[in-house]
Specification:
two-stranded antiparallel sheet; 3 domains; five-stranded antiparallel β-sheet; alpha+beta
């Protein structure tokens, strides 16, 4: 406690990053294409061949297929290309003293001290992201303590320098989150012309969506799985549509962002050989300005809808409230802030 906390320093960059997380401030058009691109897909396929035996072993032990493990690695650190250079104790102490999520980050700071005390890594070498996530697969300290493994047998759990430890630990984490063997994350789908967009985001048995006319992008029937599923439209009704299964929720257990989970799933598909999206993401704004989203939330609340707190983050509660407002006007109720919808609310985007 004395040796580490006596040397921590507040980092203002950490607080700025916390207020501008891309999963919550960027649009899907600004988020997805920069993360699922040809270079990252090509590199993932190279690593699939390079680490084939390790990845097969991880799948045998955990049920998580190789292309998913690689997708997490690719999205978190660009396959180890950038692990983060923030002092984890500094970042966590800064966030622990901030009011937004103090309890959570205070706990993570204590977990970081436990890792240092065990001798897994020295405080000076505990580098990571601005939020305190560490190593090749960006584990928070709590995840490290619970799920990191010494898969290469060298006596320590090294998520920074050991690809074997890092990828095996990712598999263990996903297994613990409830990964279902033999099931994919979901898929891109085609919606019928008369689709009821008010059902977007609902959890329904897969056969219900099939009966409503939802098909694969090739027009084929969806597999007869006994699963609950959701339809998501991250770029509105003009963009790609996705149906998500249980393992999508498992990915959300790693990062509570639908954009993140969709991107992991699609990057995994591409690494495994799938092509680009069948329906392109429409051109549009790349970011949701905090002031615009906050005003949107305030106006929706004033009009009797329930967007959640006016925090400036465009999340599921805000989308649901916006969809209800659109339905009240007879607009397509996809929960996306189209110009006509913003205009009806009297909002001019920045």
């Amino acid at each position: 406690m004395d040796s580490v906390l006596g040397n921590v320093r507040q980092n203002e960059d950490v607080l700025e990053n916390d207020r501008a997380q891309p999963e919550f401030t960027r649009t899907f058009a600004g988020y997805y294409p920069t993360r699922v691109n040809d270079r990252r897909v090509s590199r993932g396929r190279e690593l699939l061949d390079q680490h084939e035996q390790l990845l097969i072993s991880i799948q045998h032990d955990t049920g998580v297929p190789p292309h998913y493990v690689l997708a997490f690695w690719g999205l978190e650190t660009n396959y180890g290309g950038y692990l983060g250079n923030y002092s984890v104790p500094d970042s966590l102490a800064t966030l622990a003293c901030d009011s937004r999520r103090s309890d959570y980050f205070s706990g993570e700071l204590m977990n970081a001290l436990r890792i240092i005390e065990r001798g897994d890594v020295a405080a000076a070498d505990m580098k990571g992201s601005w939020a305190g996530a560490m190593g090749n697969v960006q584990f928070m300290p709590s995840a490290y303590l619970k799920h990191a493994v010494d898969a290469d047998g060298d006596g320590k759990r090294d998520l920074w320098g050991s690809t074997t430890d890092a990828l095996a630990s990712a598999g263990r984490f996903l297994e613990a989150l409830g990964w279902q063997r033999g099931l994919r994350w979901g898929r891109e789908v085609s919606l019928p012309e008369d689709f009821d967009f008010s059902r977007v985001g609902e959890s329904q048995p897969l056969h219900v969506w099939t009966e409503m006319g939802v098909t694969s992008t090739a027009g084929a029937a969806l597999p007869p799985l006994e699963n609950e599923a959701k339809i998501l439209l991250p770029a509105g009704h003009d963009g790609p549509a996705f149906i998500t299964y249980h393992n999508f929720n498992v990915i959300m257990g790693w990062n509570r962002s639908e954009y993140y989970a969709l991107t992991v799933g699609r990057l995994a598909d591409r690494i495994a050989g799938a092509g680009r999206l069948a329906r392109a993401i429409p051109d549009g704004p790349k970011k949701w300005p905090l002031a615009t989203v906050r005003r949107l939330q305030e106006v929706l609340a004033e009009r009797g809808f329930a967007p959640g707190s006016a925090d400036g983050f465009f999340g599921p509660a805000t989308r649901k409230a916006l969809a209800a407002f659109q339905a009240s006007l007879g607009q397509v109720a996809d929960g996306y802030p189209h110009p006509a919808t913003l205009d009806a609310l009297g909002i001019q985007p920045e």
